[in-house]
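User: Here's a chain of 90 residues. Predict its fold as tokens.
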Amino acid sequence: MIANGRKKTREMLIAPIHKDLPQSVTLEQVMTFKLLGVHVANDLKWTYHVDAVTSQISSRLYFLKQLKRSGAEPDDLLCFYTTAVHPGAE
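Assistant: Prediction complete.
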């Protein structure tokens, strides 16, 4: 089972759980991972996810500001906002 996707398989310990894996299997332990668009941290806090989403929206808002400065039409600005900025905020 693990042998097929060994390069893609990671583990994150949320609680101290002892498990018996074969000695030949070693998994990379990670502190955070992204699952279905949500950043999950091993301490189960939202800080990493909120920071990632805030950073992403901030960069898109900066690009929207640059579009406005370059003289883009209001309809084009609205289109960019509704397709790039707003979905990331939901």
